[in-house]
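yo

u said u wanted the structure for the complex thing, so here. seqs first:
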Amino acid sequence: MEGVNSVLGESPTKMDVQNLSAYYGQSRAIQEINLAFPEKKVTAIIGPSGCGKSTLIRCLNRMHETGYRARVEGSVLLDGEDLYELDATLVRRRVGMVFQKPNPFATMSIYNNVSAALRFNGRPSREECDAVVLRSLRQAALWDEVKDRIDEPATSLSGGQQQRLCIARALAANPEVILMDEPCSALDPIATAKIEELIGQLKNDYTVIIVTHNMQQAARVADFTSFLYLGKLVEFGPTEQLFERPKEHLTEAYITGRFG
Amino acid sequence: MNKDPLADTGEPRGYDLEVRHLKDRAVRMGALALAMVHDGWRAYDEGDLGAAQKVLDRAGPLDRFDEDMEHATIAFLVLRQPAAVDLRTAAGLLKITTHLDRVGRLGFDMARITSSTPSKELAELRGLLQQMDDTVESMVQQSLEALDHDNVELARQLFRRDDAVDRMHRQANRLIIANLEKDPALARRLAGDLLVARHFERIADNACKIGEKTIYALTGQRRSEYLPRHVTRPYVQESPDTSTGPARG
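structre next:
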């Protein structure tokens, strides 16, 4: 495979995955992956079910190690610092995550969902909370839709709005990287289009890494795409190149749907 | 042992059959375009107005092929959202259809200037134009075979053959000018010959474009990656014997 640095060109690297392997007990889910995520770009991770996409993304904010008998080998550098030598809570603040299914705190209001990260980490003033909630909801393109019902339960929102609320909640912690694990798989096409539009805006301020089963979505939102198969990185490159003329036979077989 | 889901079973998928179907339509359109060139030249050369009219009447079917191909290819793009080789093939076919339409149109244009008084003089020029016709018809046929059989090598050979057509075109221009200077009374017929020679040269270019799109569909390579663009100079700066440009292909 072509060297990652030659693929990235001038884009500075935000996260650098080096010889990363992840295990569940004796089973190795991903194998010696080397991959660099460029700063303030969207990178998609695609691959068939069970190829290790979600495991890889969960290694990027140290969530993998919270699983039963789960462990990691290798390193993940964030701005040159190895995540596995930092405090895990601090890592998760710098590397936020949005999951497949919207998971707002069901008993909390919209406002409290967004300000939760601040309140969990101290005793912020009402003014501080207001400012963060306003900024985060605006960044998540949700403010105009909820500004008149900010104290209503988060569960009163539609699925697409709940997912954007989860994005706002992740943004409230002021992360540097946002991980998204199939963020639109539970949403209808209209809500999906809004999230995709939002991803395009978020990359102005954040590095975004998205796992998706939907190749068209990867093509629409990502600047770079990586293809994983059986736990190994097969190909990484600019999205346009990977979908128009992939270098590896396996990538070609996967994206053209030539399955056995 | 787990079966590798990406292993090639060798069985054609519905998807593959759709791509095959699109290519088949393009090849059928190509056969019509080629027949228009063949019959258009024959009508012009023999001054057969009846044959010319038959070529002109094929413009409608050619248009319908063009529209039909465009609809079918766009439907494939929308419904299948292809990637990699399938995407390149669909994109290539959209362009190939345009080139085939142009080939047919050039045959149409030859039929359009057919006159009922063919000139039997100027044997050298007639022979040269016939040679151009033979070459460009064979090139279009070759481009269709390359597309039909996924044959990159066959497509690549077209570029070298195009150089030969360019040489014949320049030679035809020189003969036409020399004859005009010798006998201005032949001006009407020679003006037609000038156009026909130009049409043959354009047909060869379109055959090369079809080859180019076939190579792109099969390999992802664009022309600039395998064929350096040669320097073109004004005719007056070219010597008759060395005006071939660098060899290509």
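The first strand of chain A starts at residue 13 and ends at 24. Chain A touches chain B at residues 48, 215-216, 219, 229, 243-246, 250-260 (CB under 8 Å).
cya
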